[in-house]
Every structure is written in C-alpha cells, then in structure tokens.
Amino acid sequence: MKNGGEQKRYTYQVSDDIFQRVYDSPGSLPGKEKWVTADEDVRAIEKLLGMPERTIGAPLWLSGDSRHCHQCRRETSWLDIVSSALKKVHGEAMIAEVILGERKFVNVEVPHAIEDLFCHKCGTKIPDLRSFKCHNWAYAKEALVDIVRQISAP
Questions:
Q1: 81: buried, middle or exposed (CB in 10 Å: 19+, 13-18, 0-12)?
Q2: For each successive 10 residues of the chain (154 residues), what is the average pLDDT?
C-alpha cells in the first residue's frame, strides 16, 4: 500500500491460461460500462505509432464508470491511453509490442481508476477508466519485428 492507503498499481505478464480466462469474458471487466475502441480511433492509434494502416485488428476493450469525456463528451478509447502514455511513460515501440506482441499483459487497476489518463481531444483528465485490454490475436513475430523496426527508425 502507498501512503494514504492507496493500492499500488501493476501490469503483469501472465501465462496463456490466466490470459485466456480474463479475456474470455468482457463481463469480468470492472466498472459500470464495457466497450470496444471505435475503428476510427484504432486507425488514429496506428498513425500515432507510425504503423501501416490496418495493422491492429484485435478488439481494444475498455471499462469504467462512464464512457465519455466529462468535458467534450468524446467516447474514451485506447487512443486516450496511447496518447497519454506517449506523453508521460512509454515509447511507440513498447506500446506496439503490447498491442501486437505474443506476451500477454493484464492490468490490475481495480478498484481504482487508471492514473495520468487524459482525453486525446480536449486534454481533460479521465477520472474513471478502470481497465483496458487488448485481445491479442497472435500476430506473426516477423510482422511485429518489421513494425517495431519501422516505428523505431530515426
């Protein structure tokens, strides 16, 4: 526990069995709402990461207590997660590997909201997104290596 009784948040690499149990049921996601990132936002993520169009084909799930930005009413999506992460924490190649790679990751943010998340459109803090996941469809390793190489090139 952190000071003030806050729970420390983690994302874990997990076995195929645990990953499958979590991903088999979108209903297991925390929060009042559960939804998939809109296709136009998935295409915007590809542009942000420098990926060829239609590289991401897997559903990008989210869950939370509300679905829309409290300021501009835009539907929250993985675009908010990716753009926020690029500004503060992660590089393009790392995010591409999480979305397209063979390793399985599960975030365990429950019961707290995901921190440092902001609306891609208006910059307002998103206070109540609780979980996100990518249903990885086992992309070919060679294709992933090529994409990461493209993203990482100067």
A1: buried
A2: 49 69 63 90 94 85 91 96 88 80 59 83 94 59 59 68
Asked if 92 and 86 count as a contact pair (C-beta separation under 8 A), the reply is: yes
Q: What is the pLDDT of residue 107?
A: 58
CA distance linking residue 47 with residue 54, whole number of Å: 10
Query: Which residues contact residue 70 at a Cβ distance below 8 angstroms, ignoring those fewer than 6 apart?
Result: 124, 127
Q: Strand pairing partners for 103?
A: none
2/11 Cα distance (integer angstroms): 16
Distance CA 129, CA 34 (A): 10
CA distances (Å), 117 to each of 20, 80, 84, 93, in order? 27, 7, 6, 19
pLDDT at site 127: 93
In the block, residue with structure tokens 């296709």: 39
> What ranges in the chain are assigned the alpha helix state H?
16-23, 39-49, 78-88, 92-100, 141-152
Cβ neighbors of 110 (< 8 A, separation 6 or more) are: 30, 130, 131
Question: 77: helix, coil or strand?
Answer: coil
